[in-house]
Amino acid sequence: MCCDTLEGRSVSLLGNQHAAVYCTPFHWIAVDPIKKKGDAHKTLDTLFRSVGVPRALIIPDDAAELTQGEFKRKADTAQALIHPTEAYTPNANIAEDRIRELKRAHRRAMAATNTPACLWDLCLVHTALIRQHTVSSIRELQGEVPATMMTGDTGDISFLCEFGWYELVWFSTPQSTTESMENKRLGRHCGPSLNHGNAMSAWILTDKGRFVHRTSVFSIKEEEWSSDGFKERVAEFEARLRERLKDRHNPLEPDPDDDEEVETPTHEPHEPTDSNDKPALPELAEADDIQHEAFDRHISSSVRIPRGDDWAHGTVKRRKRDADGNLIGNTNKNPLLDRSIYEVELPME
After folding, report:
1. Partner of 144 for a Cys bridge, out of 10, 83, 148, 252, CB 3.0 to 4.6 A?
2. Is residue 273 situated within a structural domain?
3. Do 129 and 77 fall within a single domain?
4. CB distance 82 to 67 below 8 Å
5. Which SS3 state, helix, strand or coil, does residue 45 take?
6. Which pLDDT score, from 0 to 100, does residue 167 have?
7. How far apart are CA 345 and CA 349, in angstroms?
8. Average pLDDT for residues 90-107, to the nearest whole number?
9. CA 98 remoteness from chain centre
10. CA-based radius of gyration for the chain
């Protein structure tokens, strides 16, 4: 497993300025934000508790915060060997391309949702979780997701697939507003909060610029987006959030490496449907008009037919067909109108 630290462009809303990144050759990657590089040893506790102790940790450029001090002591205690790579040999570090793709994906997610730059750490964690639970054509994965290859457990995406990054949602709160007396408020979904509350707990950014952890989170319906009252409520939410965050509300500056255009999601106007406008059901054929052996009442019945000067008893086996395989004649409840022809099996003389 490779380990490296990256530096954020600004101090996040949670006070983080760096992040420790762990990755493997089969593209499992995890991010643990930290306030300073000296706190990198704290991320080992989370790593060992969540996925176990790796056989060796590959450290690029012989970084001091990852090869000395408390980090080295914890790794030695867990018997995880530290292997620093030679300086100025980026090709020997498998973490370089993993981190590059991770940063590129997280910048695209933030640009597409117009996310404030101070949320870069939570977006990195959310992006890494998505990459952990996404299957790729890597041969080592054998059709599994990296999270399954790492832990052996069946991949579960229920905490990721319901809401998108920085999506506007409703969340329940016991504090109701005096104007509407509602128990739900608007918030921004900032990914799952793995170390708070239950398994489905999520980071919710409120209009006060603070985070709450909630499991009672609900999507906004399409008909609500077309409501003028709801649009005014969203505008008030964004104004209060911008006032709270001030300069930190500015979006992330574009990176020159991202040469692809990012499309901002839009909400189509809701068009209510009339319950009376039901699609016409196709007309079903009458049972008597269906020509199929499965509905034929004569098949398997015993019949008596003339055979020479005597009568012979036989069993109706099937309908007679022409050279093209079509049934000959049409059945009818009235025997006088029945023109179907059958094949009858007679006993041997």
Report:
1. 148
2. no
3. yes
4. yes
5. helix
6. 94
7. 12
8. 80
9. 21
10. 34
What is the sign, positive or negative, of the torsion defined by CA atoms of 58, 87, 129, 24? negative
**Across 274-299, average pLDDT:** 68
* Residues 6+ away with beta carbon under 8 Å from 245: 13, 116, 118, 209
pLDDT higher than 70, residue 92? no
Distance CA 264, CA 287 (A): 55
The pLDDT, as a whole number, for residue 178 is: 47
Cα Dmax for the chain: 113
Nearest to 298 by CA among 331, 336, 346: 331
| Chain-centre distance for alpha carbon 124 | 17
Domain count, the chain: 3
Tell me if 109 sits within 8 A of 165, measured CB to CB.
yes
Backbone φ and ψ of 30, nearest 5°: -140, 145
Residue 259 lies in a domain: no
The C-alpha angle 119, 122, 128, rounded to 5 degrees, equals 135
Residue 263 is predicted with a pLDDT of 54
- The CA distance from 172 to 135, in Å, is 34
Residue 196 confidence class, pLDDT cut points 50, 70, 90: confident
Least confident of 94-103, 178-187, 271-280, 295-304: 271-280
Residue 310 half-sphere exposure toward CB, CA atoms < 13 A = 3
Residue predicted with more confidence, 327 or 263: 327
- Same domain flag for 44 and 136: yes
| Coil/strand/helix, residue 47 | helix
Which pTM value belongs to this model? 0.70
